[in-house]
Automatic annotation (TrEMBL):
<protein>
    <submittedName>
        <fullName>Uncharacterized protein</fullName>
    </submittedName>
</protein>
<feature type="region of interest" description="Disordered">
    <location>
        <begin position="8"/>
        <end position="47"/>
    </location>
</feature>
Amino acid sequence: MLTIATMVLPPPATAADRPSARSPDGRFVASTRPTRGTAGASGQAPASLWLTDTRTGQSRELYRGRYSNDPKRNLSSLANPDFSLDGGYVYVEADAYATSPAIHQVAVRTGAIRYVTDGALYGVLRSGPWRGFLVVQQHRYRQNGNGSFDPFVIVKPDGREVAMVPGSDGDDPERALAQWLGAKRWTVS
C-alpha cells in the first residue's frame, strides 16, 4: 500500500504579518495584546498597543483599543505595529471598514493618537528619497464600475498620498511592490 501525504504550507510572511516591531534603536518593542471590548467592522478581536523596554523588561500599555461607530475613530482591534524612523511614533492598523482597516499614528511618549489613512500597513520605507513614508495597501473601486483592486500606495506620515506603486493595480500587487522596491533598491520594515 502506498500512502501519499500532502503538506500545505502557509504563504510566506510579509511585512504586513508582523505581530510586533522593534524601535530603530532597538530599545523598545511594540506589540498588540487582547483586551476586553467591542470588536470592529471585521469582527477582529479587541486589542491594545503595548510598549516593552528591552533594557528593563518593563511593559506599559501605550493605547487601549476603543470602539467607535466612526471608522476613522474606531480603534477597537489594533494590529500590525511598526515604528517611525525616529522611533517617536508607532503606526498601527485598526479595524475600520468591512473592506479595509485604517492606519493610526501613536506617539510613544504620550500615547496621543492620530488617524493617518485608510488601508493596510505594509511597512515604513527605511531607505530612498521617500524614507519614513508608509507603504499602504488600499481597497479601491475602478472608475468604470468594473470591480475593485488593492494597489500599494506611498503615503506621507501626515496621510497625504505621494504615489501608487506602478503595476500594483493589477492582478498581483505584492509582486509589483517587490519588483518596484527591488529596482529602486529601497527597503521597507
